[in-house]
Design brief:
The complex is a heterodimer of chains A (479) and B (493).
Chain A (H helix, E strand, L loop, with lengths): L9 H19 L16 H14 L6 E3 L4 E3 L1 H25 L2 H4 L2 H20 L3 H19 L6 H32 L15 H18 L8 H7 L2 H25 L5 H24 L4 H22 L2 H32 L10 H4 L1 H15 L5 H15 L3 H26 L14 H19 L2 H9 L4
Antiparallel strand pairs in A: 1-2
Helix pairs in contact in A: 1-2, 1-5, 2-3, 3-5, 3-10, 3-13, 3-18, 5-6, 5-10, 6-7, 6-10, 7-8, 7-9, 8-10, 9-10, 9-12, 10-12, 10-13, 11-12, 11-17, 12-13, 12-16, 12-17, 13-15, 13-16, 13-18, 13-19, 15-17, 15-18, 16-17, 16-18
Chain B lengths: L5 H15 L3 H31 L7 E9 L4 E7 L1 H20 L7 H20 L3 H12 L1 H9 L4 H29 L7 H7 L4 H18 L8 H8 L2 H26 L1 H28 L3 H20 L4 H32 L10 H4 L1 H14 L6 H15 L3 H29 L16 H19 L2 H15 L4
Helix pairs in contact in B: 1-2, 1-4, 2-3, 3-4, 3-11, 3-14, 3-19, 4-5, 4-6, 4-11, 5-7, 6-7, 7-9, 7-10, 9-11, 9-12, 10-11, 10-13, 11-13, 11-14, 12-13, 12-18, 13-14, 13-18, 14-16, 14-17, 14-19, 14-20, 16-18, 16-19, 17-18, 17-19
Classes of the chains: A mainly alpha (479), B mainly alpha (493).
Chain lengths: 479, 493
Amino acid sequence: MDYSQFLAMKGELSLIAVIMILFIADLFFCPDGHKKDGKPRLNTLLPVVLLTIHTLINIIPTPATEAFGGMYYSTPIHCIIKSVLSIGTIVVFLMAHEWLRQPDNLIKQGEFYVLTLSTLLGMYFMISAGHFLMFFIGLETASIPMAALVAFDKYRHHSAEAGAKYILTALFSSGLLLFGISLIYGTVGTMYFTDIPAHINGSALQIVAFVFFFSGMGFKLSLVPFHLWTADVYEGSPSTVTAYLSVISKGSAAFVLMAILVKVFAPMVAQWQEVLYWIIIASITLANLFALRQQNIMRLMAFSSISQAGYIMLGVISGTPQGMTSLVYYVLIYLFANLGAFTIINIIGLRTQRYTLEEYDGLYTTNPKLSFLMTLSLFSLAGIPPFAGFFSKFFIFAAAFRSGFHMLVFIALVNTVISLYYYLKVVKSMYINKNEEPIVGFRSDNYTRTSLLICTAGIIILSIASVIYQYIDKFSFGL
Amino acid sequence: MNLLSIFVLIPMLMLLGLWLSRNIRQIRAVMVVGASALVVAAVALTVAYLNARHAGATDEMLFRADIPWYPALNIQYSVGVDGISVAMLLLSAVIVFTGTFASWKLQPLTKEYFLWFTLLSMGVFGFFISTDLFTMFMFYEVALIPMYLLIGVWGSGRKEYSAMKLTLMLMGGSAFLLIGILGIYYGSGGTTMNLLEIAKLHNIPIEQQRIWFPLTFLGFGVLGALFPFHTWSPDGHASAPTAVSMLHAGVLMKLGGYGCFRIAMYLMPEAAQELGWIFLILTGISVVYGAFSACVQTDLKYINAYSSVSHCGLVLFAILMMNQTACTGAVLQMLSHGLMTALFFALIGMIYGRTHTRDIRELNGLMKIMPFLSVCYVIAGLANLGLPGLSGFIAEMTIFNGAFQHPDVFHRTWTIIACTSIVITAVYILRLVGKILYGTCTNKHHLELTDATWDERTAVIILIVCVAGLGLAPLWMSNMISDSVLPLVQVFR
């Protein structure tokens, strides 16, 4: 056996190394965080530094490679999306610092890092899979530890409930997905991505197979009508985990869906575009309408993330290289904007236990900086210039428009106006509404500040600097 | 460094300065220095532009510069000005300058207020210098969103409702606009976003123009208070703080007219000729309906807001006549309306700041109590109803003159209908002036009020000088504009 092909999986290997180091280090660290017996404390710094090193050594994309007879393949664009996801994970770790300092969680710190990175590893494999089994294994690796993370605050009723909900829907969707894959195998006789397209002819069975496959992915991406678990899980899980779920998990699934649709289901393009067309309209419109009435900020962000997933699908539906570029760019910017907002929700929730919009009233009077940064993040999510969200929205609309989906883009645009209403509602609470007892002013810890700094820098720099878009554009592929 | 980029650079530096400033003196210093720099830059640009034209420069746009931004989508940061944009830049600079003085004593959160205010003006300046569809659209949106917070936080009355209504309606308009822009870009082959080059290519198929023209026109029309999408304007203006009303009615609404002219009509002339009549009816209704509505309002700001609907309707009305005279009139009307509306809103803000009411039933005999403000109010009113010697006359005269040149009976009929607005305007202005300024003052609290302070006088005098200047010596301005309008109307052949 030629061991050198392992080197093709440089990114995965270094991530495994990070996981192993953390796993072993956890044994030697003092469990309750107090210095005893001369044992050092496990700190957020160690995983963040390790993950940063991992990101940096993999940030330069490797040329296209293949390993294990096509089970695994990687192109520069895969490396880019992996880097994007690991940058997001760094931010999540930074914002998790304060939460993990709580007495309940102190002894579980090590688990949090290892579980999170395991899901990330699963996503890596899922992204780079060249075979449906490999893809499925990656997907499961990404979703089972996720359930444990969702239920991380196990003594909190909501968190445990959310964990149960998540694992049930995840398993159900995996079942659907697997059934779809088995039908494909039945009709084409192979599971290699490179071999399948030759046998895809759009027969009835293949359409059924595609629908099952797509439904499974729809659950992962929380697209309407597969979104029913989202709001409860987002509300119940710890806000750090919600942040991770809403950005990293969703971003990887979106990319994989696009890659599989344009590579494997290319001959069925008319059919999957039809399906996506209606799914996008439903996702964006319904999620926005539901979001209008939400009072809990976590639920609001949950519905916002469903509609954002719909926008991301606009990149998929075009199926062009331009669509893929705009998808990756959208995910990158959505990552910064959404994580920025979640960092603030997280720190406010931890310090004051407040999660409803009414309780955010008058935040500007006590915490002007946090409110300002929250406004930036929300404006970016809503697609207001000069923040980066405007650019990513424009590009993704342009990509879909170019492929002829004029009506769809128009509906999506009308929806941005609806979404602006609920984003502005948060801004209105913070700036305009009066409150007798606003959230008291506090100083955030340095990790939260760093996370906010990264997010804000991302939101502002990515709008002016066009190099990153150009860079991604060089490597994109499509139909 | 391009001369025009200064107009974006100065607001950026102002934002930075405001960010760093610690107390109200520093904030005011930054604002005054920045706003003066903008005025100086605008005047310098006008002089440079006129000199270049005298020297024989015949390009459609001068001082052009293109910097590639997102090459994958042919997006460039490209700037350039012709006579129309020069006039608009001059107007914006004057309004920003006077707006700064009009909000001299604004409380609370002064720093935040000026930050958003400056961001808004950055959007306005950026829009007028851009010649790239994408950057134009971007600056357009940059100018819209600060309105939400400016009205919501610092406004009065039903401010939350008005702010949300205004923002959502204008953003809805920009949704139409964005789809129109994408349509123009891909309809012309997807090779360039530069509007001059798109106009030169002139290759958008007529079937596509029929879709994208109404969308684009409507998108800009919402901001230009096109009937029936004008309803954000009265509420928004009534609730906004003084300087924001000034900037919004004075400059921001002009973005609508400018965009309709430069993007919708210029790039899709065939569809404009084919479908222009629909919008002509709508603008005609705007003109007359706005004037009638102003007659029955009792709130000073509402009167002026409806009057703005009427006058801005006239801008779009004139553009749709598609000849040189009428379009020159449209640009002059933008200038004239911008100046006198800003003057009006400034004066209303000053009166409201003293009497704490804008209800005309509670105001009377102000002439004896605050003579300076009252005289200025009369001047503004006279400019509004088109008295010769003030700017309103020049603009409306040119518009109706040009509109009647249109050979078509339909267009002439609508011109006659629109002409009635002159009379109706005189009705509500004279009624208003007679009601609140003359007679005896019945409210004894009002007797103790004082006249304008120095910062207020500065703002008002500058605006009056501009209004009278445009009215007395319009020729250099109208020549500059009409030379630049020519290439834009030549496409309608």
